[in-house]
UniProtKB/TrEMBL annotation:
Subunit and interaction comment: Homodimer.
Top-rank EC class of the record's enzyme: isomerase
UniProt name for this protein: Triosephosphate isomerase
Source organism (scientific name): Papiliotrema laurentii (Cryptococcus laurentii)
Superkingdom of source: Eukaryota
């Protein structure tokens, strides 16, 4: 079974009501055909307005969510609230959350568990730092991050998960991984899925690449056999995002 190509746009903490409306208008006007699954993640404040403005088949995603359904957790949003607001996707474990806000492997895993438990689909981010790559520990690092998730969810939950491999040194740096570097790690992740989860999970789970993806480098990356799409940061705020969404057209 072919895996549907997936392009996520992570706006991070960027944009305003006006600039985000413009991006969404442009996406709507692009009349994407749905061959590629497109999901955009605006800052939480704008989720509801984007949810209303955005035309199907494109979908909206949160950039984070907490582990609990409700309660005294000032500043957090629960997966259940996202579901209630018709937001069906959430990005979890982004390297900025891990590095700047203390999201540990265990917390990320618990957030993934809570999100799939609430019926959400998850873009689960993993990836090594420059030091870890230079030490030759990329495979161990991504497997450690994946093991943490696998330890707390059920094998069938992987159907709700897209794995985003994002080498930290490539995020926002303009330094994209080579096709070979990305393909090699994606193949390692797929082998991990087969060994730890199931043959079916290995065959069907989308593994997308993130880190300085743009309209210029997307076509070559998209040609690699184990790259099933992209998580796009900076370029998702620009008109070229539409070209990236059409890379498989
Ligand atoms: P970038 O970000 O495309 O700006 O490198 C990717 C990401 O953080 O998801």
């Amino acid at each position: 079974m072919a895996r549907q190509f997936f392009v996520g746009g992570n706006f991070k903490m960027n944009g305003s009501l006006a600039s985000i409306k413009k991006i969404i208008d442009d996406l709507n006007n692009a009349n994407l055909d749905g061959k590629t699954e497109v999901v955009v993640a605006p800052p939480a404040l704008y989720l509801l307005s984007v949810q209303k403005l955005l035309n199907a088949p494109a979908q909206v995603s949160a950039q984070n969510a907490f582990t609990e359904a409700s309660g005294a957790f000032t500043g957090e949003i629960s997966p259940n609230q996202l579901k209630d607001a018709d937001v069906h996707w959430v990005i979890l474990g982004h390297s900025e959350r891990r590095a700047l806000f203390g999201d540990s492997d265990k917390l990320v895993a618990d957030k993934v568990k809570a999100a799939v438990g609430a019926g959400l689909s998850v873009i689960a981010c993993i990836g090594e730092t420059l030091e870890e790559r230079e030490n030759g520990t990329t495979k161990q690092v991504v497997e450690r991050q994946l093991d943490a998730i696998a330890n707390v969810i059920q094998p069938e939950d992987w159907k709700k998960i897209v794995i985003a491999y994002e080498p930290v040194w490539a995020i926002g740096t303009g330094k994209v991984a080579t096709v070979q570097q990305a393909q090699d790690t994606h193949a390692d992740i797929r082998a991990w899925l087969e060994k730890k989860i199931s043959k079916e999970a290995a065959e069907t789970t989308r593994i997308i690449y993130g880190g300085s993806v743009n309209a210029k480098n997307a076509p070559e990356l998209a040609g690699a056999p184990d790259i099933d799409g992209f998580l796009v940061g900076g370029a998702s705020l620009k008109p070229e995002f539409i070209d990236i969404c059409r890379v498989k057209a």
